[in-house]
């Protein structure tokens, strides 16, 4: 008798899919129907596996995705741990705003981690960076200023079966942080996957390892984001404080440019909205209108 069971794809290895279910990790192959549908199962997908008494396991269905992010891609990401460096490379509010806009567009939550703050500990430069990041805390983002606090609190933040991945500028320390988190993590899924490989040569792109009650993708994420595909009239919805306060604008579809009675422009003038946020909004808006990523961001 055929049995079907639902689970999460935690790795793709040489054409095999490891699916974590309430019966453990099940290795399976994908049915040809996915090729016919031009559908590619991804790590993070909620999938249905068909089992039989001959030990032949097949993916037979991919449940609807809520998103797909990253390079390599991970499906159904709940939260991104965004690594922004204090120095080497230099801290950049513009880059931070680009990432936050991109993930808001993708409907993914963001937790911000300031890396390399120890390099400039006790300096006026670090004090200024932290003051700027306090604004992002006020508008709803969780911010970690040091690795010790992050590692202490992160396991409790990851909810049951939630999928997290990393993102951030090149050189910000994503890989270093990832290696530390993976070393500290409960490596049950990794050990199972290793046992299933049985020593044969394998290739894989990305894997989920268990952390807290959920998963973290063992990829350092990506460092560039394309924003020009966002609909220009929707851009303000992805700046959370703009979205919240635009209900007080005179015009319902206010674009916060030259319209009279714009609440957002008033809040910028009154320093209730960080001026750099508004400037970055205008830059991204122009990028969308030009329909291309700026050369310096490539």
What tags apply to this protein structure?
298 residues, alpha/beta, Rossmann fold, Ribonucleotide Reductase Protein R1, domain 1, 3 domains, Ribosome_biogen_GTPase_RsgA, Small ribosomal subunit biogenesis GTPase RsgA, GTP binding, RNA-binding, rRNA binding
Mind sketching the topology for me?
Layout: E1 3-13, E2 16-21, E3 24-30, H1 33-36, E4 46-51, E5 58-62, E6 68-69, E7 74-75, E8 79-85, H2 93-105, E9 109-115, H3 124-138, E10 142-144, H4 147-157, E11 163-168, H5 174-184, H6 188-197, E12 204-211, E13 214-217, H7 240-245, H8 263-269, H9 275-290
Parallel strand pairs: 3-5, 8-9, 8-11, 9-10, 11-13
Antiparallel strand pairs: 1-2, 1-4, 1-12, 2-3, 4-5, 6-7, 12-13
Subcellular location: Cytoplasm
GO molecular function, one term: GTPase activity
Subunit structure: Monomer. Associates with 30S ribosomal subunit, binds 16S rRNA.
Question: TL;DR?
Answer:
This protein is α/β, with parallel strands linked by helices.
Describe what this molecule looks like in 3D:
Its EC number is 3.6.1.-. GO terms for molecular function: GTP binding; GTPase activity; metal ion binding; rRNA binding. Monomer. Associates with 30S ribosomal subunit, binds 16S rRNA. The protein is of the alpha/beta class. The protein folds into three domains: 62 residues, Nucleic acid-binding proteins (OB fold (Dihydrolipoamide Acetyltransferase, E2P)), CATH 2.40.50; 149 residues, Rossmann fold; 66 residues, Ribonucleotide Reductase Protein R1, domain 1, CATH 1.10.40.50. The chain is 31% helix and 25% strand. The protein has a five-stranded mixed barrel with strand order 1-2-3-5-4. The chain has a two-stranded antiparallel ribbon with strand order 6-7. β8, α2 and β9 form a beta-alpha-beta unit. α2 crosses α9.
